[in-house]
Amino acid sequence: MIAQLQGFPENVVAFAGRGRVTKSDYVSTVVPAVEKALAGHDRLRLYYELGADFAGFDADAMVEDFKIGMQHLGRWERAAVVTDVPWIVHAISLFSFLMPGAMKAFSTKDADQARLWIVSPG
Predict the structure, then answer these.
(1) Distances (CA, A) of 27 to 32, 100, 119
(2) How confident is the model over 59-89, as pLDDT tens digits?
(3) What is the pTM for the complete model shown?
(4) Residue 72 near residue 11, CB atoms below 8 Å
(5) Backbone angles phi, psi at 121, to 5 degrees
(6) Structure-derived torsion over alpha carbons of residues 80, 85, 90, 91, reported in degrees to the nearest 10
(7) Strand 12-21 with 2-4, pairing
(8) Are 81 and 57 a contacting pair, CB within 8 Å?
(9) Using CA atoms, how far apart are residues 69 and 20, in angstroms rounded to an integer?
(10) In the chain, where do the E strands start and end?
(11) Calpha distance 118→78 (Å, rounded)
């Protein structure tokens, strides 16, 4: 399941993945939030938490994640992913070069630092 997180500026879309994340989660939560934010901003920032209760992505969810990212590729300003899941941290280090903006992985103990970074100017 994906829940949209509140308390971020309008140019930041923020989510928390819990349990098993599915394509339906992307279609019902992520895509509408991203489209709404893009209607009012040229560039967006992404904050994504995948904590201890995260159980993984379905294959179709990973396809949806890739699609939404690539569909708006030039409009992502930066992304913060908060997780202690080793394969996700590794994937970010391998594929962050594809993103035109900055992309960082933060451990769950550094979630406050990630929140500060995602909203900071520059």
Answers:
(1) 7, 24, 25
(2) 999 899 889 888 888 899 999 999 999 999 9
(3) 0.92
(4) no
(5) -65, 160
(6) -70
(7) antiparallel
(8) no
(9) 20
(10) 2-4, 12-21, 44-57, 76-83, 102-106
(11) 7
Is residue 61 classed exposed, middle or buried when 0-12, 13-18 and 19+ CB atoms within 10 A define those classes?
A: buried
Stretch (H or E) spanning 93: helix 86-95
CATH superfamily entry for domain 2-119 = STAS domain (3.30.750.24)
Domain map (residue ranges) of the chain: 2-119
Please report where in the chains the tokens 């990973």 appear, as a residue: 62
pLDDT band at 14 (very low <50, low <70, confident <90, very high): very high
Task: List the structure tokens of 45.
Answer: 């920032």
